[in-house]
Amino acid sequence: MRDLMLWLDGQQLSVALRESFLVWSAIEATHIMTLMLFVGTIIMVDLRLLGVLFKNTPVSAIEKRILPLTMIGFAVLMITGVVLFYAKPLTYYNNMYFRLKLIVIALAMINIMVFHFRVQHGQAKWDNAEKPPMSARVIAGLSLSSWVIVVCLGRLIAYGDWFHCATFNEGDFLYFFSDCPQLGGH
Amino acid sequence: MLFDLIYQLAGNADFFSDNIEPLFRATDQGPAARFVKDAWYFTPMAGCVHLVALSLLGGAILLADLRVVGPGVTARSPVELNRKMHPFLVGAAIALIISGIMLGLGQVMRIYNSPPFWLKMAGLFSALVFTFTTRDSVIRNNGKFTPVAIVGLVISMLVFWYAWIELTDWRFAARQAYLILMLLIVGFITAPMYLKNEKVEKLRSLPMYISVPGFLVVVGALISAAFLLARIDYQYFHELDLNAMGIAAFFHPSILGMMLVSYIAGVISWIGMGAVQTQPLSMRFVSMMSMFLWLSVAISGRWIAFW
């Protein structure tokens, strides 16, 4: 895996991206700005599912109008995120927060799938309910907390010097979690 | 001449170095700044709160304003949505300001010398004034500009655009970015005036897996084209002062081209985002302007890290 990262890191476009002041900062700024669209709209949908906001509006009405915007936000976040990773693969590869962020994103995706394939099937019954059933509220709670954690972990990536391979003891969980043996120990 | 007049009215470099700098220097050496610098965990934690609050603020602003411009929740009226979002907006703004102060305490003199920081402060002031006077009043009064709305509009626009002129020069990409964003907005709010609904509906009936990537690619390509067009050569203007150069550059074909392309990107966005013309132009204008101002606060905030 690390060989792949080294190969990516040496690509001409990758070097050009990380050395470009304007393109790099514009892509990073777009990534952060899109959080307002993606996380901002998902918070509102989750609050409706929790029965906190828009209690008198059918859940489907909120989903129909807001989820397309959330999807656009997610698409932009994914594209800019992949470009940012491509520009600095070695910086992110061993970063503990980056790895945790990917895991929490995967969990949030599973949560969305559970909602879509299990909970949403019975939505017609509780679409107008002020307080959706417990299963929907649990999913909304998990979604809300996981995206907040993703935002925080994304911010903490910049503080990778807190915990990194040189600070872990060989054999510790975090040492293996961050794939430090690939670096040849410390 | 005009710029000199505004410059004298709004203060100048001497005013800043005589009054503001000592305040920042004292804060930098004070106990609060020392505590933040010594506590290794404090800045990252404040950064997390800042980002989460920004996301919440984005949600509150977008939900209320997208309802007005079109692609929002139509099951509730704009007035009601705006009222519902108010507590979130106020809460997020307070959290942003407090966490922002915490973050700033860790690098007081750096932000004092940072143009993006001052642009952010001007943007924040303008966004707060505009949102809580002009936008709220115009939405509440179904598109009518009350005296409060007009005063808020004049104050916020003067502060924001004056800061924009003073703090960005013509080679600074931020200036181009703001111009592009403005023209996008103009395209978005004026598109419904002349686009035929049946043609738009045909485009909107495309499956989402085609329309979303297609929309992103077209708008992305148009914005990139606008940036490329804006990279004009200023060799003919170098003998002019910066502000005169700025005015002259407006008539340069590449800047005019950039504006046109950004405007088209705004129109395409309107088609892609499922907007419907339900509200008066004045309401759509204040909602787009509110999104623009808050976005500019976030953009210049991010720009601080790169300056």
Detail the topology: elements first, then pairings.
The complex is a heterodimer of chains A (186) and B (307).
Chain A: H1 2-10, H2 12-19, H3 21-49, H4 59-87, H5 89-93, H6 96-117, H7 123-126, H8 134-156, H9 173-177
Chain B: H1 2-10, H2 13-29, H3 31-38, H4 42-69, H5 78-105, H6 108-112, H7 115-140, H8 147-167, H9 173-190, H10 197-204, H11 208-230, H12 242-249, H13 253-272, H14 281-304
Describe this protein's structure.
The complex is a heterodimer of chains A (186) and B (307). By secondary structure, chain A is mainly alpha-helical. Chain A has one domain. Chain A is 72% helix and 0% strand. Chain A has nine helices and no strands. The longest helix of chain A has 29 residues. Chain A is elongated. In chain A, 30% of the residues are buried. Chain B is mostly helical and 307 residues long. Chain B has one domain. In chain B, 79% of the residues lie in helices and 0% in strands. Chain B has 14 helices and no strands. In chain B, helix 9 crosses helix 13. At the A-B interface, helix 3, helix 4 and helix 8 of A face helix 4, helix 11 and helix 14 of B.
Helical element count of chain A? 9
Number of strands of chain B: 0
Number of structurally distinct domains of chain B = 1
Mean pLDDT of chain A: 87
Shape descriptor of chain B: globular
List unreliable stretches of 5+ residues of chain B: none
**N-to-C span of chain B:** 30 Å
Biggest interface found: A-B, 41 and 40 residues
What is the gyration radius of chain A calculated from CA atoms? Answer: 20 Å
- Residue-averaged pLDDT of chain B: 85
Write down the secondary-structure element order of chain A. Answer: HHHHHHHHH
